[in-house]
Amino acid sequence: MRYSQILLPTLKENPAEAEVVSHRLMLRAGFMRKLTSGIYTYLPFGLAAIRKVERIVREEMNRAGAQELALPMVQPADLWIETGRYEKYGPELLRFKDRHNRESCLGPTHEEVITDLVRREIHSYRDLPVNLYQIQTKFRDEIRPRFGLMRGREFLMKDAYSFDVSDEMAEVSYRKMYEAYKRIFTRCGLEFRAVEADSGTIGGSFSHEFMVLAKTGEDTIVVCKNCDYAANMEKAAVRPPSAPAAVDMLEMTKVETPGKRKVEAVCEFLNIEPADLVKTLVYIADGLPVAVLVRGDRDVQEVKLKNLLGVADVALADDKQVFDTTGVPTGYLGPRGITIKIVADLEVAVMRNFVVGANEKNFHLKNVNMDRDFTVEAVADLRQITPDDPCPSCNGRLELTEGIEVGHVFKLGTKYSEAMQAVFQDSDGLEKPFVMGCYGIGITRVVAAAIEQNHDQNGIVFPVPLAPFQAIILNLDLKDAAISRAAEDLYQSLQDLGVETLLDDRDERPGSKFKDADLLGIPFRIMIGKRFSKDGVVEVRRRRDGFTEEVSIDHLPGILQARIAAEISG
RNA sequence: CGGGGCGUAGCGCAGCCUGGUUAGCGCGCCUGCCUUGGGAGCAGGAGGUCGUAGGUUCGAAUCCUACCGCCCCGACCA
């Protein structure tokens, strides 16, 4: 491609709308332009990067035995009503009526449509297993789209669905996808981790998320420095604490703590540590209040709470809600004597002689012990794991890092097939529901994540497998006939070798060309200018580390081709 | 939806508080000269319903009201 002909509008300045680095660089590098909130037009350069990801995904999906198809984007409400998700999915599902007044929606995901297809077309165990996938634009009416392609409303996704005769076979399908995903992200040249994840509203028995490691990630993940344990913070199980300390239970006493509401204030006043105190937090769970007990220096992990209670939604109550449901002002709340449901973190059960609120303004209780002084409805792992906790799997040291979720694999089971009566006949002639799995990759998000992970002050630093062009040739003096001829010849021979090349043949000064080449992040920059006129050599500069070498123009195509091949297979 | 911010040329911004000629600046764009190894210089030029609608006023980018849009934080999130 010739730079003089491609629509590649780069920006010198940072667009005001972009906050995170990938968003900023994608706008500056002429990747895309915003049409409206969360919806972008992909320009040629950006689309080329997207196609690179798509291609890798396709190859690996096909290799893993999945078949590509294309499902409709507009879907009838009927299907969603069958699974009950028409109500449950919420406002993220964009609903509308067609001209005949039929309820319809834009597909945010395709479990219903694929299950409908399979129940119509597959009736025998002989035709199983099957794994079908598509790469398609999804629409989710996100509450708050942000960070450009990281959380858009319209985005490209690869979604695959597997159908199996049994749980065991479904696990095999799941495993295959898990392996395929590892290959995909490795081939993309990304640093990532597969982590245990919460399966969320989609349901199912277990799931893994694939996280690209980057500081700007929206999720926090926990990885073990010792073994291969890795989990989403929401899911990371805290090791059950050892048996209670062999300390005698002391007599409970009420103490005055005037105006001391915050944990730190109470601790300072009573001369204790936050670890000696149990805080009582009121959550509103699907409309009902629940008191949650955790050690004073711990945080409640809301997803764990949600799962324990089996509710769709939990939110910390505000001061008014706390008072309305317990009759106690915040800061003095405790488990002894309140009437709402109480649940406690595992740690609370082994603590001895701790401090809690007295359910009376300006008073706390000392030397409180669970079961002796109050009872709870459930004891469970409810707190956020910390880097000081041991690895749940091997007891080793943990580390927290930020990650961007680019893929998610789920074992769904029969949730959808049962709801939609999608059944096949097994070898005994019995009707059974398909055992399903589903597997997503956010294609456009992969591109954004790749940039989050690979950039510097000057712009994008594309991993070779994802770069829209592998090389850029800078013609540094258009008026010099020899230089221009050499640039053209080189452009031709690189293309003949299959090297994807952009020829900067614009009538611009060298400085501008250098800046743009850096911004675009093309892995290899070939400069033809003064050094060529003088010594007949061209310079090759590697974007990643700035390593530059002079090469005779005749040798360049072969050398470059080998370099690129090495980076792509490695 | 709650909180905060912003809407003035393609992009980034000033002007608004304290209303008053022809609405500015930098970048980009066009023409010419000149220059050519890290976003040059000079000269000339094009480009604006000041988000929209209404109001106040002799007069509104500027003051008031409503609406629309966008961004950030939160809730939310295969």
Describe this structure in words.
It contains 16 helices and 31 strands. It is globular and about 95 Å long. Helix 1 (21-28) packs across helix 12, helix 2 crosses helix 6 and helix 2 (44-63) crosses helix 12. The chain has three domains: 21-188 and 414-452, Bira Bifunctional Protein, Domain 2 (BirA Bifunctional Protein, domain 2), CATH 3.30.930; 253-380, Alpha-Beta Complex (YbaK protein); 469-569, Anticodon-binding domain (Rossmann fold, 3-Layer(aba) Sandwich), CATH 3.40.50.800. It binds one RNA strand of 78 nucleotides through residues 9, 11-19, 34, 36-37, 90, 92, 108-109, 111, 140, 142-144, 146, 151, 157, 159, 197, 199-202, 204, 207, 209, 218, 313, 315, 405, 408-410, 438-440, 442, 474, 476-477, 479, 508-516, 518, 527, 529-531, 539.
Let me know the number of strands: 31
Give the averaged pLDDT, no decimals. Answer: 92
Q: Please give the count of helices.
A: 16
The largest sheet is: 9 strands, mixed
CATH-scheme architecture of the largest domain = 2-Layer Sandwich
CATH superfamily of the largest domain: Bira Bifunctional Protein, Domain 2
Rg measurement, Å: 29 Å
Shape: globular
- Unreliable runs: none
Helical fraction: 25-40%
Integer count of domains? 3
CATH topology of the largest domain: BirA Bifunctional Protein, domain 2
**Which CATH C-level class of the largest domain is it?**
Alpha Beta
Strand content: 25-35%
The secondary structure category is: alpha+beta
Task: Quote the distance from N terminus to C terminus.
Answer: 26 Å
